[in-house]
Amino acid sequence: MGRVKSAALYRRASKVMVGGVSSPVRAFKSVGGTPLFFTKGKGAHVWDEDGNRYTDYVCSWGALIHGHAQPSVVRGVERRTRKGSSFGAPSREEVTLAELICRSVSSIEKIRFVNSGTEATMSALRLARGFTKRAKVVKFEGCYHGHADPFLTKAGSGMATLDLPASAGVTSGEIADSVTLPFNDAGAVESEFKKEGDEIAAAIVEPVAGNMGVVPPAKGFLDALRRACSDSGSLLIFDEVITGFRVGMGGAQALYGIKPDITTLGKIIGGGFPVGAYGGRKDIMSLVSPEGPVYQAGTLSGNPVAMAAGIATLRLLNVKTYGRLERTSRDLEEGLVSVAGRIGPPLVVNRVGSMVGVFFSSRPVTNFKDAKEADTKAYGRFFWGMLKGGIYLPPSAFETLFVSSAHTSADIAMTVNLAAVSMRRQS
Ligand code: HOZ
Questions:
Q1: Best mutation site among 56, 59, 157, 246 for ligand 1 pocket (most ligand atoms within 8 Å of CB)
Q2: Number of domains the chain contains
Q3: Contact status, residue 350 vs residue 214, Cβ threshold 8 Å
Q4: What is the per-residue pLDDT for 150?
Q5: 118 lines ligand 1 (CB under 6 A)
Q6: Residues 202, 115: one domain?
Q7: Average pLDDT, the chain
Q8: DSSP, res 178
Q9: What is the pLDDT of residues 204-242, one digit of tens each?
Q10: Residue 116 belongs to a domain with what CATH number?
Q11: Range(s) of the domain holding residue 338
């Protein structure tokens, strides 16, 4: 399969765009080679500039739970766009999407729409600080909450991919109030809150970590965090930008039965368009401007086209969809584990619903340290083996494979077969 047109575009892009890309992970730095430029997507498949077709397990980093160009989503977007795409004023679509979300996620009584997950998390933290009148934030190694300054220490996603412990340009003052603890370590949570609980505005966590590969919460970890926050008067923020509507209608909080004070959302609620949101208890949300003194605003916030895509996406989700996602994703997990068992490379597959994490490791991966100790070079070889066979995986070991409702059993079987070929070549 040739990739000459993608390579030529990348050369052009590199002259005028930083790193030739609009976001670092997609630059292929950790897997080597140069990125693909895509022209088309339909269902579970994408096509690159050279006309190669791939089964897609990135799915716009999880945003496309129904796959590409889902007809109802396209119709909703077309209909909305024909009548105007942005007003910088309220529209009916925002209300509908807000109602759909508040009905599905029980901890969200009121919501504010923004344009990205980064905006959602940075606004949620400002809100928590405004509410508690405290400064400190507890976060976890390997979790990624977007690129706002207080979150850029020991973070996952691109920071892990590029092996950056911190970001230049973030002053020590900006992270002075950030406390980073090991993920899944309830003991560390308890002792941190014991030490300075009355200074902690919030703890923020991806309830299922999806930016260091996939790392599910250990039994009791989220409960310990909830308890510590409640006992100290700190707020618990669940960053459900990835898990929201992905692991179930009610998100990870419904799956694990933990009620956060604030939830951040993104990806799926925008159906492939730029969106983010934060929401939670009424008494907390009422502090956000214009109801309260915590300022936050945006011209394209609640953009009607993104809202229309989100509405169409959420309306297609039901028990059947999640049942199907569970079956195909389980087949993928079991297929990969059995292939690795036969062929040899030590492989750990962590999965929660349709989030699948692949680690070339001989021991369980339960935190960032384990994820970093997995063989990322082996992942890079696997990535290329799969790409050559027509499977597009995340171009970094520190990301999640997403299965969409458009992936069929045949897609999964083909992926598993190809994994066998790729692993055999590697061994
Ligand atoms: N940070 C996102 C992945 N977890 C997006 C990466 C990209 O688009 O390059």
A1: 157
A2: 2
A3: yes
A4: 95
A5: no
A6: yes
A7: 97
A8: E
A9: 999 999 999 999 999 999 999 999 999 999 999 999 999
A10: 3.40.640.10
A11: 4-69+318-426
